[in-house]
Amino acid sequence: MRHERGAHKASAIQERSRRAEQRPEPDVHGKRDWIRRAPAQGGVERIEAFFQHNGYALHRHDTYAIGRTLAGVQSFHYRRSVCNSLPGGTIVLHPDEPHDGQAGTAEGFRYRMIYVEPALFQAALGGKPLPFIEGGLSDDPRLAAATRALLQGIDAAMDLLEQDDALYDLAHALDAVSGARPARASADFRAALLARDYLHAALERPVTLDELTAASGRDRWSLSRDFRAFFGTSPHHYLTMRRLDAVREALLRGQMLADAAAAAGFADQSHMTRHFMAAYGVTPSRWLKMLRSQSR
What we know:
Distance between the termini: 44 Å
CATH class of the largest domain: Mainly Beta
Oligomer: single chain
Strand order of the largest sheet: 1-2-9-4-7-10
Number of strands: 10
Strand content: 15-25%
């Protein structure tokens, strides 16, 4: 059934991709850094960006970051190596792995990226260990094909069913390319899910590990291991990232930095800014400036 749905959508996807490629590309000749961001849906965020020099400082996400360099040389530090991404390859950064980004040449670089919650791949793979692509870069044509729909232009909207089909294909392509991985100890998905739901209900206040163990019925060390297995990061980092999601949405609505920080559960603006830098590699002010730069 899933493959039948995919077959019915294939021509529509190809047509949208063709139209997206025919649209005029954003003007990068002024060498002004910018970011374009599609509304997040179904656990996936899509962006397109251009950077002239240093894009973002060392930071880490709680999601997979999967993308493609469209122009220039995209250089980044990842797992004790310097990587140089060129058009044609696929970037695959694992959750919680620190990385940065800068232009490899004076011309700058432009790229598209999707950020995918690890739990979506877990569901598609039936609970298998999360796929891991060594080195952060791949020239495998299976990944290029599987990311084509998800890395369409930002203006090419995707409905949720189409996105789910594309994520299923991408999860299995990642699994095939990453190869065999060691089997992990049995993990309790229900306990991890209960802990995650508890965190979502407590975004605006401090949460202790004791609270999570009570909510999940799992001891603290087993819960920490299970949570990482299914969601790719620790409970604390997951909570911080959800608070930062709330901050970004508030800033896009025009809320002041201090008010957005307080509403999301941070102690103050400086506390939020430190976490924002650690998560995205740029300050909240610069992030907003780049978004506004492209919308003018």
